[in-house]
Amino acid sequence: MTSHAEPSLTFSEDELLGSRKYDEPLIAGGVRCHGGFDEDGRYHSPRTLHRTPAISAWQDQLLRSGHDVIEISRALMPPQYPNVEQAKLLLRHGVRDPMVRSLTIISIVEGFGAVIRDVRVPELAELIVEPIDGTALSHLRHGLFEAHARDEAGYEDEGGHKQMWEAARDLALEHPKIPGDVLMRLMGRRSRAPKRERPFPQLDEKLERMLAMMAQVLVIEVFAEGTFQWGIDVLSDPEVSAEPQAAGDMVRYIQSDESPHVEYLRTALSEVRARTLRTVDGKQIAGCKVVDGLLHDMLHNLTRNRPREQREDVRESMIAAMQDVANPTSLEEEYESLASAWTAPAQTGFEPSSAA
Asked: Which of 20, 55, 193, 315 is the most buried (most CB within 10 A)?
């Protein structure tokens, strides 16, 4: 009888940052980017040689112990603005500024993803009652956060998702002129965001900040699935894209790369959810109460604010750009007729419970 060895649950940082050997590199916009192609031309994401099986092993361990892995409903995902048909309509009429802005904002936000490497990870073994050996939690500052940061913003002379989104934009829209106020407007919106009170002041502040950041990034990454499909649908259309195959494929590569981000964040937060946290006054609080509370707040706010923020990012410049067409009123009416009707679901799936 053949015995099968249990999959490893402990990995070095070098292993979690390790990539397979590529037969051909990925070049995006003249920049050598991460990832690459095998001899059959199939794309393989970076830093997944051990990271992908590691995440699977940690998830299996959770499931075997009777705990679920967090699932965020795709019904909570607001539609992209402008939507696919609106974007194509504008491009067919030569109104390019809204798409240029949207794609540039996406690339900038991807670059911001590198800040996750700066998240301060406290001594989790001291703040969590149950053991965390052989979990995603125990690897956050030993490879997982760093791999995520490198994927988003690149590393050393290797480009990441920021450069790949820029390349997709430039391929499809033939190196358009980038509005000079995109970054300024984006940063202005961020600076106006209200400062929220700590939802769990009884926790160690460093732990609370780390969990809040992870919950926020998880929600953003899940919602990004809609952004990827929007990018693929628009940039792959030969009627509006100069390089439909190459531009669409670039977004598909990014989409492939993002899967480990969603999965390790789901896993680590689920591990917290299955455990008990120590409070600063020597008491305890159920991890499910903290994780569910953070996710509920993030989902509640983003589902209500994101559609408005996306409109604010491009609406003013879009109306101005429409004035250059022969019949701007007719175009605006057709544009509005293609609007996506969407209402934020009443429930997030993580409503506060009576859990202690």
From this structure: 55
pTM for the complete prediction? 0.92
What total of structural domains would you count in the chain?
Answer: 1
Domain that holds residue 329: 72-337
DSSP for residue 195 = P
Average pLDDT over the chain reads 92
Phi, psi of 167 (to 5 degrees): -65, -40
Domain membership of residue 82 (yes or no) is: yes
- Does residue 56 lie within any of the structural domains? no
Which residues is 26 bridged to in the sheet? 33
Query: Which two three-digit tokens encode residue 336?
Result: 């509005």
Contact by Cβ (8 Å): 263, 218: no
Q: Give, in degrees to the nearest 5, the angle at Cα 31 between 27 and 37.
A: 20
Inside any domain, residue 234: yes
Alpha helices (H) along the chain:
13-16, 51-64, 84-92, 97-112, 124-127, 145-153, 161-173, 182-191, 205-235, 244-273, 287-322, 328-337
pLDDT tens figures, 104-122:
999 999 999 899 999 999 9
Closest Cα to residue 261, out of 234, 228, 305? 228
- What's the rounded Cα separation, in Å, for the pair 250 and 320? 30
Quick: pLDDT tens for 190-247. Answer: 656 667 789 999 999 999 999 999 999 999 999 999 999 999 999 999 999 999 999 9
The predicted pLDDT at position 27 comes to 95
